[in-house]
Amino acid sequence: RAEFVLLLRGAHAVIAGCEATREIVERAYPAESLRWHVVPYGCDRVPPPQGPRAPGPLRVALLGAVAAPWKGSGQVLRTMELLRAADVEWHVFGDSDAHGFPGRARAAAGGHERVVFHGRYVRDEIVGRLLEARIDASLLLSPWDETFCYTLSESWAAGVPAIVSERGALAERMRATGAGAVARDPAEAADLLRLSVADPRLLADWRRSAASNPEPTVADNAARHRAIWGPLLRPLEGSTGSGR
User: Fold this and answer.
1) In this structure, is the dihedral angle defined by the CA atoms of residues 56, 154, 65 and 22, taken in order, positive or negative?
2) Order of strands across the sheet with 58-63?
3) Phi, psi of 117 (to 5 degrees)
4) Which class for 59: exposed (0-12), middle (13-18), buried (19 or more C-beta within 10 A)?
5) 133 vs 48, which has greater pLDDT?
6) Is 54 helix (H, G, I), strand (E, B) or coil?
7) Is 155 helix (H, G, I), strand (E, B) or coil?
8) pLDDT at residue 69 above 90?
9) Mind listing the pLDDT tens digit for each residue in 163-202?
10) What is the pLDDT at residue 45?
């Protein structure tokens, strides 16, 4: 922190992806007056098709580096254990081979057939893969303060609501959209997923919010950055005489 504050003090602009990230830095350096800009990351999306929920069990997606303890694998496995008796099917998209996660997930869910491993994905494909698997909701229980969380954007891009942990950007973004819910712990996450099964209207409301969520596009993000960087670069352009 002592070294990092020197960088911050010399910065003409400090950019964060959300207010929660800005607040974390300000708590660490309460005496500093930094030149803040909060610019959400961009995510291009095509409005997903909306229709009735597919019949069958509640299909819950786990996205990203799901096997990693620092990404919340412990919280996810506990949620799976609590829902062992519920009609839930788990779909894993991303790196899942480490830390013995496949075996632990099947044991937590109560059977081999209740967990489907889809393997790694690239961002351009994930929306189609979530739609193809007829995913109803995603579960993102990071144990740390996320600074934005692209996997949440990927879920919403497919019109899939999420249950997220009460940490950092996840909670901030969820409360701003209503495209899912915030859970304080695995027990509350399990309760919310049970409730979405018991009350189909709740899940339908979450899905509508996810599908209509007006997140910034990549072009929006770039325009905000140009507006910040432009005044900072003009003195440099004048000194070179090139205008570039």
Assistant:
1) negative
2) 115-119, 88-93, 58-63, 137-140, 162-165, 180-183
3) -100, 115
4) buried
5) 133
6) coil
7) helix
8) yes
9) 999 989 999 999 999 999 999 999 999 999 999 999 999 9
10) 83
pLDDT at residue 243, rounded to an integer: 46
- What local confidence, expressed as pLDDT, does residue 241 receive? 54
Tell me 166's DSSP state: S
CB 142 within 8 A of CB 185: no
* pLDDT score of 238: 63
d(CA 157, CA 161): 10
- State the Cα angle at 221 between 240 and 95, rounded to 5°: 115
Three-state DSSP state, 145: coil
Q: Enter the tokens of residue 222.
A: 């770039």
The confidence score (pLDDT) of residue 212 equals 87
One-letter amino acid identity for 67?
A
In contact, 26 and 17? CB cutoff 8 Å: no
Residue 160 vs residues 46, 55, 208, 216: alpha-carbon distances, Å: 13, 16, 9, 17
Query: Alpha carbon 174 to chain centroid distance?
Result: 9
**CA-CA distance, 133 to 91, in Å (whole number)?**
8
